Amino acid sequence: MGKGEATIETGATKSSEGHESKNGRVQAVGYDHIPQDMVAEVLAKLPAKSLMRFRCVCKTWSSLIRDPFFVKLHQNQSLNKPCKTGLLMSSKHQLFNSHFVFADHEGKQALEEDTISIPKSSNVLGIANGLACIVNDKHCISVYNLSTRESTTIPPPPQEIRFQDRLSFGFDPLANEYKIVKFCAHDKEQFEIFTLGAERWRRINRKHYNFYGGTKWYDFKEAICVNGVIYWMVKSMAESLKINLHSFDVHGEKFQKVAVPGNGLCLFSDLIQIEGCLAVIQDSECGNKFKLKMLQDYHNNVWTHRIIDIPLGPKDVRYPTLAGTLGTGEILILDDHFSGCFRLFYSDMRSKRLRSAKIALPSFFGENKWKRYYANHYSQTGENDGSWLYSASVFSFHHVENILPLKEDGQGFI
Question: What are phi and psi of 288, to 5 degrees?
């Protein structure tokens, strides 16, 4: 087959020159006369799974689909589409794998073959634009592309990762870069950064910022990256267990302690993304109403207050979890219990319309009853005595398709 030609299965019986073909295949379809930018524009609208197959059509398409400009074009197209809802469902029990499951914007579950299982004893550091950063129990860090199933292993940092070190994953929209940040617990003036695509880690000094606020501290909730800034909650043992909000600007690579208005943060506070902004939320006292503090301007620390009223009935969810907003503008609510399947609720704040969807659970959840006991964490209880059996976590995220190549050979990781 020549350059700019492809063999395509079709129901037609004519060749590219208009002659009938006995085997019903169109052979040597030329497209050199089609402008390359037009080809790119059409292909960018296709789902990632189709593009992965189309890399085999010809060398021209393979090069185009891997081109950084086209990767960015496809990502922008994906961001403008109603994104899928992703759930990371995992159990602390070492016998169980963690799983990524997906549902489209209408709540319809993706095919079972789209469910992704990650290795046992692994921890997800963060998810950004369809890339998941994962570290295993041997402190080996990898980045997985949830759309293409490609992965890359990150070189080990100069200093060995220790138990008290903290790792976070974020995206810099200004430079279009993904970074892993390592906080060195044994050296309070140093931290290390790895930029995806680089060959080695960089060590940066932070003499003018005391992240720890004392000799004893620990972060007790998962970090979140919003608009190029990583946020996480830190409980300081040196400040009578006071909970502070800290941030890291992924582009400027600067730390900052963020002042939260009012009474600040408490044990039941949670960090989510609402309409593109960081929001601090607590569990609803009455079930349907949530009080939010939204960070509208990060650089000037401008906060606004908002109350979200979810039209849930008494038979829907007793203690709902507000998970954030979707690309459709809807609010996503997680159920407080599940058995056999997991329920999602979508609330349109303008029309006050509420819809629900069910997602089948990975096999390890079984048909047993699970009930939320803290934030996004659930416990499994016995049928008769109500005793605690296993604990699990369910975290939601906005899944954006991404075709960023992570391996030159294009081999998958699962």
Answer: -110, -25
| Contact criterion met (CB below 8 Å) for 164 and 152 | no
In a domain, 414, yes or no: no
Say yes or no: 282 and 188 in one domain. yes
Residues 38 and 168 in one domain: no
Helices (DSSP H) in 81-222: which residue ranges? Answer: none
Give the residue from 407, 304, 396 showing the smallest Cα distance to 357: 396
Residue 61: give the domain boundaries.
5-77
Domain count, the chain: 2
CB 254 within 8 A of CB 207: no
Domain end (from 77, 99, 126): 77
Residues paired with residue 9 on neighbouring β-strands, in sequence order: 25
Residue that is last in its domain, among 77, 97, 127: 77
Residue 301's nearest CA partner among 345, 257, 271 is 257
Q: Do 95 and 72 fall into the same domain?
A: no
pTM: 0.82
Reported as a single tens digit per residue, the pLDDT across 212-233 is 544 445 555 678 999 999 998 8
Q: What is the mean pLDDT of each successive set of 10 residues along the chain, which is 414 residues long?
A: 42 40 43 76 90 89 91 88 77 67 68 71 88 90 92 90 83 95 71 92 72 50 88 74 86 90 81 89 69 92 89 74 78 78 82 81 69 66 52 78 75 43
Is 355 a member of any domain?
A: yes
Residue 410 domain-assigned (yes or no): no
Q: How far apart are CA 116 and CA 122, in angstroms?
A: 13
Task: Dump pLDDT digits (tens) for 173-193.
Answer: 999 999 999 887 666 657 899
Provide DSSP, 111-143.
PGGG-EEE-TTEEEEEEETTEEEEEETT--EEE
Would you say residue 407 lies in a domain?
no
Co-location of 219 and 348 in the same domain: yes
Cα three-residue angle 374-378-381, rounded to 5 degrees: 120
**345 in Cβ contact with 358 (< 8 Å):** no
Give 413's DSSP letter.
Answer: -
Rounded to whole angstroms, the Cα distance separating 10 from 26 reads 7
Instruction: Specify the pLDDT at position 218.
Output: 53
Residues 100 and 61 grouped into a single domain: no
What is the spatial distance between Cα 338 and Cα 201, in angstroms, rounded to a whole number?
Answer: 42
Query: DSSP strand E in 310-384: where?
Result: 321-325, 331-334, 337-338, 341-348, 353-360, 370-374, 377-381
Q: Residue 394: which CATH number?
A: 2.120.10.30
